[in-house]
Design a protein that fits this description.
Length: 384
């Protein structure tokens, strides 16, 4: 797929602007054709992700000035939301790479020298980035021991989506320091000596994401690969940036799942005998979907208007809870509206029901999010 053209001066500029939502619909049936089999066999959706990479989806968020497709943040959200209508696992796995590209792209517009190298590597080397954020968050995980020229990292990561096809692990490790435990943010090649992808992903839903555990046994990380140092367990500016950029993209997937469930339920309900009860359930389903859409829209608006910090983080995390709750309830109502037909695997609704449950488990989970909201409302330090 040709994404860019070049001027005679070799400066990359965007060619015809791509409609990523339309492209997602075009490839969607091919993704969907493999989705059920991956779910039934706990198989990684490798073919789906490889096809998307071949068609340029992995570099959609790389700025056009660097030779990427230059998709806007809203376009990335719509792309993932649309892909989720066809295969939740494919969309969620891609969202983990996409937000790891969107974050340096957001920073590039402010301090390009800090992140331009990574963005160029994503483009030129066709890298797939793997996030370990689900097992790290504020505290970090794994141990980093200083050695000559860098660190030796050991421990275990969980929820590393897309890891069987990943190239670069964007992760953290904790170093003991005089000032207290210090989290080091780092990039580790997935083929590093001492890093193993374990076959552990046996789950209720999102079975095709390949979110395997990673075992690190004395993996050497050069000093130059460490990008941020911060106190463990504390909110740091980089974590506010991650929150602002990552979560609206991740939760776009769950809105897409809810929309797909609604569409399927309406098809199935139309084959049932009309009744006021079914109409009421459909109305409840549509209301929950509207809430999910509105909450996601507010998260996306925050990306456009807010600067990273406690207020923006509280806004995003509140949206994360509202989207998750509403998406789950939407699919529950879709199952009810479909009647007994929704209980059969062949309809696809029960897979959507299982997949959407994953919305519960990304940080900050509901109790932690509620505590954050309370501390912001009370004017208390959020690290308390």
């Amino acid at each position: 797929m040709t994404i860019i053209t070049k001027t005679p001066a070799k400066t990359p500029v965007a060619a015809t602007r791509l409609d990523w939502e339309r492209l997602a619909h075009e490839v969607g049936p091919e993704l969907a054709a493999r989705a059920a089999q991956a779910d039934e066999t706990d198989a990684f959706v490798a073919e789906n992700l490889a096809m998307l990479k071949d068609r340029g989806f992995h570099m959609a968020g790389v700025p056009a000035a660097l030779g990427g497709a230059g998709a806007t943040y809203a376009e990335l959200s719509a792309m993932l939301r649309t892909l989720a209508r066809y295969c939740g696992s494919t969309a969620l796995a891609l969202s983990m790479h996409t937000h790891q590209v969107a974050l340096p792209a957001w920073r590039w517009r402010r301090t390009p020298e800090a992140v331009e190298g990574l963005l160029k590597r994503v483009l030129e080397q066709k890298l797939t980035l793997v996030s370990s954020g689900g097992s790290d968050w504020l505290d970090g995980s794994c141990k980093a021991v200083p050695v000559e020229g860098g660190f030796k990292v050991s421990g275990r990561k969980v929820f590393a989506s897309g890891s069987p096809a990943g190239d670069l692990l964007m992760t953290m490790a904790v170093m003991d320091a005089p000032e207290g435990p210090t989290v080091l943010h780092m990039a580790i090649p997935m083929r590093s000596e001492g890093l193993r992808v374990l076959d552990t992903w046996r789950t209720l839903g999102m079975r095709g994401t390949g979110s395997q555990d990673l075992e690190l046994d004395g993996v050497f990380v050069p000093e130059a690969a460490v990008t941020v140092r911060r106190p463990a367990g504390k909110w740091h500016p980089i974590m506010h940036m991650v929150t602002l950029i990552a979560f609206p993209l991740i939760y776009s997937v769950y809105v897409g799942l809810a929309e797909a469930a609604c569409d399927r339920a309406l098809d199935l309900a139309s084959a049932r005998k009309p009744s006021p009860d079914v109409e009421l359930v459909i109305g409840e389903m549509e209301t929950e979907l509207a809430l999910a859409r509105l909450a996601l829209a507010d998260m996306l608006a925050a990306v456009e208007t807010d600067e990273p910090g406690p207020a923006a983080t509280n806004r995003i995390m509140t949206g994360r809870t509202l989207v998750g709750r509403a998406a789950i309830r939407t699919v529950e109502k879709a199952m009810e509206a479909a009647g007994g037909a929704g209980f059969y695997r062949k309809t696809g609704l029960e897979r959507m029901f299982r997949d959407v449950q994953a919305a519960r488990y990304h940080p900050l989970q509901e109790k932690a999010q509620g505590r954050l909201a309370a501390r912001v409302a009370l004017g208390l330090p959020i690290d308390g």
